[in-house]
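Repro:
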Amino acid sequence: MRSRGFTLVEILVVVVIMAVVISLAMMSVGVTGRDSQIDEESRRIEGLLGLLHERALLEGRDFGLRIEPSAYEFVVYEADRDRWLRLDQDREFRHRELPKGVDFELQLDSQTVVLKPVDQNFKSDQVSQSPQVAIAASGEGTPFRLTLERAATNARASVEGDALGRISRVSSDHVDKRT
């Protein structure tokens, strides 16, 4: 007589099915939860702006953030030449592209700003236009809200700055209530 039990093959089939279901559940949480690329980029921008704020106070110079639809760069004001110059000599402040599918939305004084690409044909030390966000040598800055958004998933993260130069960030897993 055969005993009533499960064979090794039946147990292995059940374990494989459970592993597939668990891995699918883990992937779906990753898709609908936090967007790590947006969070990483917003943390980078927050950190670099904080560093630039401290640098403005220490060096007594004006700095700025020039924002394009899907890229950004940092600039410094040269009073001798009366123009904004790119900060290409510092690796951390170089021109940066956003990850594919991620775009910026910039608000100044609660008004959305139309972002235009910078002409890359200019010399590396020149910028054609003034930055949208300025950090003065006194430590004061342009009040702004910079939102990174992935249109495909509606994941968003924001970096905000006030007139006193304080920078804050809201990550992509925080629900932004809009009215």
